[in-house]
Design brief:
6-stranded antiparallel sheet; about 30% helix; 4 domains; single chain; Dna Ligase, domain 1; D-amino Acid Aminotransferase, Chain A, domain 1; PreATP-grasp_dom_sf; alpha+beta
């Protein structure tokens, strides 16, 4: 069978790589893909835009593709699943109605309240003055979130009243475009963050290996939030007992309410969690797609063929799937970014040392890269994700750092403390 992966980041490279590891997968096409998928054996990039729904459907139908896997959240929020399903295609990714769980934080909060899912108290604002008046009455620190999609950069954890007010002002002044037309202000939660990506066909929901990522640009988890600078799995922060609680108190209630609302949700439900000091999981946010870079550490640990899982979701038969199989190992990844990310950064730098990195035993997933005249060049803020497995976290991290040390490009930056919370 053949599959189509939509997107151009490290997550999509990992999805294509894992699909091609299945004996059932003959070819993977990527729209638009990146420099890594361009050089992946059995993979082919197609120069289409992600908002060209008609062109994507034509490619899938003409090539008799068995499955379309949607990577990023924006096409899901724009309704690509609904469109492709109307053409008779099997799609892994929720409908436009389901994608609201990520596209609107206020909508997601409302769903959590209805489902009785533990989360931080919050209020939603559409005007600056009432938001500031509310902030004046709240304890610090406090969390400010742009309601809509902001590429992982619409959240501020404000330590001071001035910082909180500035974050609200920036959102209403258009820093995040229309994503900031509404602002969610919520209480600050203490504990450790973790990610549980779960696959669902709208009826059954199965959690994947729990992961933990580092969202901030600076070492020691300092500085502005990014799309993620590194990750590891399975995280010891989520014990088997806590995962059972997440399943029964968070994942299953969420799917039940989505179903009650008549929403056909087939894809990933990503729960971004805070594990409190006494082990209680609370939802920080829900996302409607695989996490990045969590996918780059979860999928290398998966032994069950990925296509079997995704097709079972698309065909609403996930309950019939045997229990998922996992490698008895640990995985860690380190993101190589362009200096200046998540703000202004250079592009077009030639990347060297990719083969030498692979020789260290790591897998290098490309994120912001392009293949140009035989050279791989940087084209985004997060450029590469270097992933390694090991019997222990220390071994996995040691291999990942040995590999990333072999890679060079102008203005390359990476954190040297990934995994510090568990080492």
């Amino acid at each position: 069978m053949k599959a189509l992966v939509l997107g151009s980041g490290g997550r999509e490279h990992a999805l294509a790589w894992k699909l091609l590891a299945s004996p059932q997968i003959q070819e993977v096409m990527c729209v638009p893909g990146n420099g890594g998928t361009a050089t992946l054996p059995g993979c082919r990039n197609l120069g289409l835009s992600l908002n060209d729904f008609e062109g994507i459907a034509r490619v899938a139908l003409v090539n008799n593709l068995s499955l379309v896997v949607v990577g990023p959240e924006q096409p899901l929020a724009d309704g690509i699943t609904d469109y492709l399903q109307q053409q008779g295609l099997k799609v892994f990714g929720p409908s436009q109605a389901g994608a609201q769980i990520e596209a609107s934080k206020a909508w997601a909060k409302e769903l959590m309240m209805e489902a009785g899912i533990p989360t931080a108290t919050s209020e939603v604002f559409t005007e600056l003055a009432p938001a500031i008046a509310y902030l004046e009455q709240q304890p610090l620190p406090i969390v400010i979130k742009a309601d809509g999609l902001a590429a992982g950069k619409g959240v501020t954890v404000a330590q001071t009243r001035e910082e909180a007010i500035a974050a609200v002002q920036e959102a209403f002044q258009g820093k995040f475009g229309t994503a900031g037309d509404r602002v969610v202000i919520e209480a600050y939660l203490t504990g450790q963050e973790a990610s549980v990506l779960a696959v669902t066909d709208g009826e059954t929901i199965i959690p994947l290996m729990p992961a933990q990522d580092h969202k901030q640009i600076g070492e020691g988890d300092t500085g502005p939030n990014t799309g993620g600078m590194g990750a590891y799995a399975p995280t010891p922060v989520v014990t088997p007992e806590i995962l059972d609680t997440i399943q029964t108190q968070i994942l299953e209630p969420a799917i039940a309410v989505l179903k009650q609302r008549g929403i056909d949700y087939r894809g990933v439900l990503y729960a971004g969690l805070m594990i409190s000091p006494n082990g209680d999981p609370l939802v920080i946010e829900f996302n409607c797609r695989f996490g990045d870079p969590e996918t780059q550490v979860v999928l290398p640990l998966l032994e069950t063929p990925l296509d079997e899982i995704l097709l079972a979701c698309a065909e609403k038969r996930l309950a019939d799937l045997p229990p998922l199989r996992w490698k008895p190992a640990s995985a860690a990844c380190v993101v190589a970014a362009a200096e200046g990310y998540p703000d202004q950064y250079l592009k077009g730098m030639v990347i060297e040392g990719l083969e030498a990195a692979a020789e260290q035993g790591a897998v290098v997933f490309h994120a912001g890269t392009q293949l140009h005249q035989g050279q791989v060049k940087a084209s985004g803020g997060r450029v590469l994700t270097v992933t390694a497995l090991g019997e222990t976290f220390d071994q996995a991290l040691e291999t990942a750092y040995a590999a990333i040390a072999k890679i060079q490009f102008e203005s390359m930056y990476y954190r040297r403390d990934i995994g510090f919370r568990i080492r």
